[in-house]
Amino acid sequence: MIFGSIIAGATSEGGGAIAFPVFTKVLHIPASDAKVFSLAIQSVGMVAASIAILMMRVKVLWSVIGWVSLGGVFGMLIGALLLAPVLAPEVIRMLFTVMAVSLALTLTFLNSGFRLSNNAMPEINTKEAGILLMAGVVGGVISGLVGSGIDMICFSVLVLLFRVCESVATPTSVVLMAINSLLGVLLHLIVLDGINAQVHAYWLAAVPVVVVGAPLGAFCCSRMHHLQIRYLLIFLISIELFSSIWILSFDMTLVIFSVTLLMVFSSLMFWMSKSAVYVRKTE
Question: How does this chain sit within the bilayer (predicted)?
């Protein structure tokens, strides 16, 4: 979590993006416990990073956060209440991997000379609000299953479709994940079975680390070159992908699910990258 908290504060990946694969693949902790831990630790770390972002007066898109968070509430309920009890652990683990790979595709598009022309969100009308709500629902479903995801989905939509620069999209996704993590923890405390003693012990051990590491990551992000952040994320996601292929036991159902989901995410990323609706007319 020393490493995870710094990544959480510096990038569009929450600390759960590091905790979830390590918990489930290395420590062999059940996916349900790893998800709850991810939400709980992010409710501290991402909030600390958000406070640092606000204190440094880094620009965030509050209108985007509002619309995506609204969709995230419904998505979180669907993921945690309806899907989590019926999906196999291997499916949930692979869902996380596919989501991470979709973020890597986004970063690859950016590395290929993709132009980010907007320093702010275009005017939000009915169409834009609907897109942000849908992104929130999808991201909320994933967060309800693996403990993170809405931040990565929001980041991809902002940079690929709306062409918002990374220096604005990244802190926006950090604040968004902080809010979503708090909502997820409240959902588990009030509606579901709460947080068991083992996860609570993990959380207590990690809190002193993330409360320092996440703000440090936010500070480092403000000083790092955007290419360094991209390459670091692509490297981490590559490890996640190869470890999933190596460790997980793939049957035909899991293969079909993984390939189908990857094709859907890839198609959406490709479509958003080719859409020129929100490119500034002066270009």
Answer: Multi-pass membrane protein
Q: What is the pLDDT of residues 37-49, one digit of tens each?
A: 888 888 887 788 7
pLDDT of residue 224: 65
The sign of the dihedral angle between the CA atoms of 17, 19, 233, 209 is positive
Please check whether residue 161 lies inside any domain of the structure: yes
Q: What is the pLDDT of residue 279?
A: 75
Q: How many CB atoms lie within 10 A of CB 194?
A: 11
> How far apart (Å, rounded) are the C-alpha atoms in residues 17 and 97?
10
Q: Which residue's entry shows tokens 């993990």? A: 202
CB 155 within 8 A of CB 44: no
Distance of CA 44 to the CA centre of its chain: 16
**CB atoms near residue 216 (< 10 Å):** 18
Does a structural domain hold residue 280? no
Instruction: Answer whether residue 279 is part of any domain.
Output: no
The DSSP line for 14-61 is -THHHHHHIIIIIS---HHHHHHHHHHHHHHHHHHHHHHHHHTT----
8 touches 42 (CB < 8 A): yes
* Residue given tokens 């509430």 in the structure block: 73
pTM of the full predicted structure?
A: 0.82
> Phi, psi at residue 132, to the nearest 5°?
-65, -40
Q: Which residues of the chain have pLDDT under 70?
A: 3-17, 111-114, 116, 214, 218, 220-226, 228, 280-283
Identify whether 270 is part of a domain: yes
CA 18 – CA 185 distance, rounded (Å)? 18
What is the number of domains present in the chain? 1
CA distance linking residue 18 with residue 38, whole number of Å: 9
- End-to-end CA distance of the chain, in Å? 42
Residue with the two structure tokens 């159902």: 253
